[in-house]
Amino acid sequence: MSTYPPFAVAVDLAVFTIRDGALAVLLVERGEEPYAGSWALPGGFVEPDEDAEQAAWRELREETGMERFPGHLEQLKTYSAPDRDPRMRVVSVAHVALAPDLPEPSAGTDAADARWWVVDDLLEGRDDLDGPALAFDHRQILLDARERVRAKLEYTTLATEFVAEPFTLPELRRVYAAVWGAPPDLGNFRRKVLGTEGFVVPTDVRGQATEAGGRRALLYRRGPAQVVSPPMARG
Amino acid sequence: MSTYPPFAVAVDLAVFTIRDGALAVLLVERGEEPYAGSWALPGGFVEPDEDAEQAAWRELREETGMERFPGHLEQLKTYSAPDRDPRMRVVSVAHVALAPDLPEPSAGTDAADARWWVVDDLLEGRDDLDGPALAFDHRQILLDARERVRAKLEYTTLATEFVAEPFTLPELRRVYAAVWGAPPDLGNFRRKVLGTEGFVVPTDVRGQATEAGGRRALLYRRGPAQVVSPPMARG
DNA sequence: CCAAAAGTGTTCCGTATACACCCATGA
DNA sequence: TCATGGGTGTATACGGAACACTTTTGG
């Protein structure tokens, strides 16, 4: 029979939102060693009386400062390399969260600072100064998280988690544009969303016009549908 | 700053194969409390110098008695409910493994017995005697694992992991029939597999005829392709 | 009346679907 | 030559790709 080696179990969070037409992720600046001064995904240890998902919701509330986090949360993958944390053996259950555009976050208790970063600036290895290198194995976690989000937009209704209700179809289309890098074809997009029963439910209200004028778009709310079949076409 | 509560970290394995035209999973009969005499997914604790995936490969070799397990392994999900193990706080990183038809397994060191079970007999809640109830939260893990396999067959080439090389297309088609409950349309199936570059690579050899005669099918090997786009149609 | 943004329609074409039909083999 | 299983062909229709066009609103 094997021994029962002691581990610490943590959760790490890749919290995504759409800011200025780009996919953005919440990072915190670490105040303590190791990696003091580096930027990392928010996270923390799982408490004795909670499971990983509850720990993730708790961290989400703490880091965003919101009583009730208004978005989607799901488990991503568990990272367990023996040397991923130099202090001790830490296994991290990574999660992905999606939220509509949120206010600038405030620094948490154990973080020096917290802010949103454009994901592509962090991950695309361009030499001209972009985002900072990430602490621990968080670059890999962020890569996996972005891929999960990209894939799930194709065959689920998850895009609606990135917009606040009520929302317009052009708003929703800009979510796809931000995540995929290019907007889906306008006509095909509308036929897909409106043709998928339960994707969105229309209201009889129209949104505000922009400064420069233009037709005012109809407002919608999220519908009960979860999957889109066949998948939304990726530009 | 939070405390660092101690956890045990384990891996559990849902090892699938196709036996007699049905999806089957490997279970072990527990020899110790808790749940002594119950059937459970094979698994064990992660050692100090390995990550979860290495632990899963090790358990796979131990449980199947094979030096080199001839199949596919991937992480499924992590289960961490505080009361999932009555002895102590155990977090389990569940994995899914796929293998071609394997010999009857031998009982491992800490298991009283080990055998294959038809998955539907374990999961479909028919009242007439089927499979046994599973230990811990392993019924839920098995449900999630089956769903992962079903889904992945649609948009990946993973079905080839269920057959031993070289294999015929009818053999491969029977994999889909077993997992989905009904075979995909013959013509469409062939066009899909042969039309997806790198799904299979043909040999110039034909397989054996069955007792009752009939045309001998061409033999193929796995190709380098990983994804099938658009997905294989689910009956 | 013009620009900007929302929304509609239409043609083309690949391909999934469903099903009928032909080929090879052993008893 | 018949049953069995492997393999091929085809009419239909759905839906994505691309793009032109119409409608509504503010300046």
TrEMBL record, chains A, B:
The keyword Hydrolase applies. InterPro entries: Nudix_hydrolase, NUDIX_hydrolase-like_dom_sf, NUDIX_hydrolase_CS, NUDIX_hydrolase_dom, WH-like_DNA-bd_sf, WH_DNA-bd_sf, WHD_NrtR. Gene3D superfamilies: Nucleoside Triphosphate Pyrophosphohydrolase, Winged helix-like DNA-binding domain superfamily/Winged helix DNA-binding domain. Pfam families: NUDIX, WHD_NrtR. Keywords: Hydrolase. Residues 6-142 form the Nudix hydrolase domain. Belongs to the Nudix hydrolase family. PANTHER family: ADP-RIBOSE PYROPHOSPHATASE, SLR1690 PROTEIN. This is NUDIX domain-containing protein.
